[in-house]
Fold this protein.
Amino acid sequence: MNDRYQTPLAERYASKEMQYIFSPDKKFRTWRRLWIALAETEKELGLDITDEQIAELKAAKDDINYDVAKAREALVRHDVMSHVYAYGQQCPKAKGIIHLGATSCYVGDNTDIILMREGLRLIHRKLVNVIDELAKFARKYKDMPTLAFTHFQPAQPTTVGKRASLWLNELVMDLEDVEYVIRSLKLLGSKGTTGTQASFLELFDGDHEKCREADRRIARKMGFESCYPVSGQTYSRKVDSRVLNVLAGIAQSAHKFSNDIRLLQHLKEIEEPFEKNQIGSSAMAYKRNPMRSERIASLARYVIADTINPAITAATQWFERTLDDSANKRMSIPEAFLAVDGILDLYMNVVDGLVVYPKVIHQHLMNELPFMATENIMMDAVKAGGDRQELHERIREHSMAAGRVVKAEGKPNDLLERIAADPAFGMTMEQLKGIMKPENFVGRAPEQVEEFLDQVVAPILEENKDVLGMKAQINV
């Protein structure tokens, strides 16, 4: 197998569970389940189909004769009819009623919907578990002050947990979107070659209610509440676009998280997990590169770019059906699922092993805090009788001078020393240091984290407690 291309999504990134959902075996077993559901429904609605025929179909549903189907497809160049033929070879009594009245999209499109829903359910479970791990991290560090950044320039302090709540909030939004799309998915049903159900109307001798009931029954047998009320031969390709937009939303959130972790690792404040025997660089043995976060970013970029495929496909379909969607769908849909599956495993793994360095965080904060505390210092000096306008100008001058010392001379920030030496402020160094308590500058960050976790995240985790406890396995 080393002499041909193999997709890295399967070899390196996606879980076996997600790979199976989009595997040929899962697809063709689902085709057979759909053929059984169709035959059962047609029998129930009065067609001349026997229990013996249906029993024969059920007996062979998981014993797929791939060699026969493959040989037939080489001859007829049609995958659905090749599998109808192969199924018929195993079920001679039912051979004549397999796929009765249906078109290829009956198995193809209905299966695509079924597999996408299963894929979304797996994504949902993993997303909930990432939320759970991140919630634990946010709660643990909700009170730890850290330097915040706007434009990647030092800004008013926040807490480590509050920053994590920003990552968490985006995942909660993604979870809401996933749940909405799962609820919205419907089967195509049995719509026929142009969506008019003409073949089924003929089978049921012009009985429109039986045509409607056929859709309802097939949907229930396949675990859906309903079918799309109208369609061409296919379900609207906007469904695929909607699904991939949700996956891209997860990719966006994960990419943002990975960017922040990579920047924090550069600052030596927080690191992703690094294993004992892991090699960070082939040349520089000391390096601890954020390779997992970089992989998240890489896969996320792929998913975000992949959303253009179903968007263009949906926009360019002709009338009731063209086949220019088929080859594209075979790649763009499964690979988006496999990539997001890998992203969430990496996300879970990184969060579960994040290493926080409180002393570095504190040092970086204290290097900048004097600048941020000048408003408090000025107010205290005004309360003691100082002139606000004069003090504002003096603080501006002292801040500029201290900034030059830090940037041009590489020395520590001496702003507090300058203010203590200025009689206009009338404040001692001890008084100034008393103001320099980081927790005094984080606003409501700890309370916001608690409120968010208790009011928003906790109900989500309680509702999904049966799926908690997943651990991510990454291959490389």
Observations:
- The longest helix spans residues 104-140.
